[in-house]
Amino acid sequence: MVAVYAPARFETTAADDLAARYGQHLQDLQGLATTTIERYRTVARQFLHERFGDGAVDLRALRTADVIVFVQRQTQCLQPPALKCVVSAMRSFLRYAQYRGEVDTRFVAAVPIVAAWTTTPPVPILPEHAQRAIDSCDPSTAVGLRDRAVLLLLARLGLRAHEIIALRLEDCNWDSSHLRVRGKSGREQLLPMPVDVGVAIAAYLQQGRSQSQDRHLFLRSMAPVRGLMAGSDAIGTIVRHALQRAQVDAPHRGSHQFRHALAVRLLQGGASLREIGEVLRHQSPQTTLVYARVDISALRSLAMPWPGVVR
Predict the structure, then answer these.
(1) Which of 30, 172, 246, 247 has the fewest CB atoms within 10 Å of its CB?
(2) Is 160 a catalytic residue?
(3) What is the pTM of this model?
(4) pLDDT the model gives residue 208
């Protein structure tokens, strides 16, 4: 006798359903990165569950105190960078609720401001450590060729991980030496392709990239052979393996430290914050201001002597 089991059923609550619709809204109308959508959706789901439990969700019953108390509770267990995400997610979700006509503008304004978002400057990887990580890639292997090209994109152009994953074959314009990059909110920009980056990508395409119908520039090294999965930590994994091979004890293990290193290098080379923001494609000047705290030696040269101190 063959046992037949009914397919598993997963019960969802009204809070789960609304959070899912909110996530779909972010994808369809705002074009946010997959990882950002998931983080925002998770925060929205947590807020709705804490406020409404497993019952019906009535956003018209919300009070501004509900929003404030929720954020205040997060401060007890999260560090400022994670709190920043919670606050951004709450503002985004409440704007979505406003779009649905269920709350008014005062709810968005009620989301508390988290202090010290930019008091701690990002810690970049040292230039010599970045070069050691790049040099650790074995050019005689397909994986080594791919990883070298990825690391050079991080170090020379400051690309974000999801931007590298999204690159396609047609984004490389070899005639004009430009690279088309899809940034946040789906915005496309043309960036100049440095010579070493172009050489590394060409080497990967000619000697390392497997034959595939997938048009993504960088492919997985294991079957099924396809583009790196959107929203995955594939680029971070490449960085961590390179740092391990190079025996580099970097301040962080993620890919973003290469982006920070590029910003610091530009700052120390005399670039203005506005120019750095343009290179890194920041949407807001506030995002770039954090780098004003990085170059301490340059700031010291501008400091006035304290009155009464004999030098």
Answers:
(1) 247
(2) yes
(3) 0.64
(4) 95
